[in-house]
Amino acid sequence: MSDPKVSAAVAALYNTYPFPPEPILDEPPPGYNWRWNWQTAHSFCTGLKPAKDNIRILDAGCGSGVSTEYLVHLNPEASVIGIDLSAGTLAVAQERCQRSRATRVEFRQLSLFDVDQIEGEFDLINSVGVLHHTADPIRGIQALASKLAPGGLLHIFVYGELGRWEIRLMQEAIALLQGENRGDYVDGVKIGREIFANLPEHNCLLRREKDRWEMENKQDACFADMYVHPQEINYNINSLFELIDASGLDFLGFSNPQVWNLDRLIGKGQDLLERSQHLTERQRYRLIEILDPHTISHYEFFLARPPIIKQTWQVDAELLDAIPETSPCIYGWQDSSNFFDYNYQFARISDPEWKFLLGCQDNQLKQQTVAQILESESVNASLEDVRSLQKQQIIMLKQST
Fold first, then answer.
1. Is pLDDT at 1 greater than 70 in this prediction?
2. What is the pLDDT of residue 392?
3. Among candidates 260, 237, 2, 42, which has minimal Cα distance to 131?
4. Same domain, yes or no, for 143 and 62?
5. Structural domain span for residue 340
6. 362 contacts 325 by C-beta, under 8 angstroms
7. CB-facing half-sphere around the CA of 178: CA atoms within 13 A
8. Which helix (H) or strand (E) covers residue 185, if one does?
9. Is 31 left (phi over 0), alpha (psi -120 to 50) or beta?
10. What is the pLDDT of residues 25-68, one digit of tens each?
C-alpha cells in the first residue's frame, strides 16, 4: 500500500504546479522522443522491429500529459492509458490531448500502487520521474511489473544522488527556513528564489543552478518540482540495481548508452581499461558514475518481461535476409547525409551508408531484403555499413521469415 500522507502531499504539489509545464498546442507536439516510440524502443532493446504495432501503452504517472501526448501521436495504432494522482494535473493532460487531437487515450486518477485496478496487460509501460517520488519504490516497480505483458517493455527514469547533491542541499535549506510552513509550495518557491538571489557568486549551489538548471527553472513549476518536492529518493548504481532486481524483470540497458561508455572517461589510459576488464558490468557502471558524478543526475533504462527475443545481426546470412526500414525518429535524411539522428544530434554516416538509407525508402511497402538493396547499382554499401546504421538506430531490421 502507498503512504496516504505522502500521496496527498505529492498530489497537492502537482495540483498547485501542474508538471511538466510545457505549453498546450492545437497541433501534435513537435519532434519526437524515440523512447516513447514503440518501434524504435523495441528495436533499441532487441535489435528487431516489433511484430505488431496495435499495442496497449500505460503512462504511469503521466503528469500534465506531455509524455502521454507523444505516446499517442508516435504510436498511431496503440491505445493509451494515462494515470496520475493529481486531479489538477490530469485536467491539464486531458486538455492537452484534446487540443492536439490525441484521441486514443484514457485518463484515470489513480496511484501506480493501484494499477491492478486496470484490466489486462501492457506492451509498453512508461514511468518517467515517478518512482522516486513514492514512499515505496520497490512496491511501485513491482506493481508496474505485474501489468507488463510477456515480451513487453518498461521504461523508467529515476534520480541519481551524485549528480543532484547540490539540489538536495538546497531542498534542506528551503525546508529549514520554511519551518512549519512546509507544504506551502508557493512559499517554498519564494524562499528558494530569495536564497539564490542572495548567495555570493562563487557559491557552489548557485554556480550549479546557473550552469545546469537555471533555464528550465525559470518556470515556477520546474523550480517547485526540483527544490520543494515533499518526497524524493535518489539512487546510486548499487541501490538502483536493488530496485531493478526487486522488479523480477530483465535489465535491457540504459537508454542513454553513450553516457555509460567508460572509454569516454579513461579511454586514453590503456592500462586502466585493461584493469577495468575484471569488473562486473555493474561495477563498471559504478566506476563511471564515481568518475563523472555531475553528468549522471538520473538513470533512464528499459526492463522487459521474459521471454524476449534478441537479434545481434552478427551472422551475415541472417543480416542479408533481413528487411530494413528507416527509423521513424530521424529527420531530414531524404535530402542530405547531414541529418538529425534519434537524439536530435547530427548523424555521422558515410556516403555508402546514406545511399543504403535512401534505398530503404518506402521499404515498409516494398519489403526488400538487405541483399536486394545492396544489389542496386546506386548503392555501394557493405554489410558493415548496414550494421553501423542499425547500431546508430538509423534503420530498423526485421526477419523476413
1. no
2. 96
3. 2
4. yes
5. 316-398
6. no
7. 22
8. helix 185-198
9. left
10. 999 999 999 999 999 999 999 999 999 999 999 999 999 999 99
* Dist. CA 48–CA 325, nearest whole Å: 11
Kindly list the distances between the CA atom of residue 198 and the CA atoms of 205, 216, 220, 376, in Å, as whole numbers in the listed order. 12, 20, 18, 67
Query: Given this model, what pLDDT does residue 336 score?
Result: 87
Where b means 16+ CB within 10 Å and e means fewer, 87-97 reads ebbbbbbbebb
User: Using CA atoms, how far apart are residues 73 and 97, in angstroms rounded to an integer?
Assistant: 10
pTM exceeding 0.85: yes
Is residue 309 in some structural domain? Answer: no
26 within domain boundaries? yes
> Which residue carries 549551489 as its cell?
205
Q: Does pLDDT of 140 surpass 80?
A: yes
For residue 400, is pLDDT > 90? Answer: no
Domain boundary among 227, 248, 264: 227
Question: What is the percent of the chain where pLDDT is above 90?
Answer: 96
Report the greatest alpha carbon distance in the chain: 75
Res 381 pLDDT > 70: yes
Residue with cell 527544490: 227
Number of domains in the chain: 3
Q: Count CA atoms closer than 13 A to 35's CA, side-chain side.
A: 21
Q: Mean pLDDT score of the chain, rounded to an integer?
A: 96
The three cell numbers of residue 306 are 521474459
Boundary of a domain, candidates 178, 195, 227:
227
Q: Is 72 domain-assigned?
A: yes
Q: What is the DSSP letter of 120?
A: S
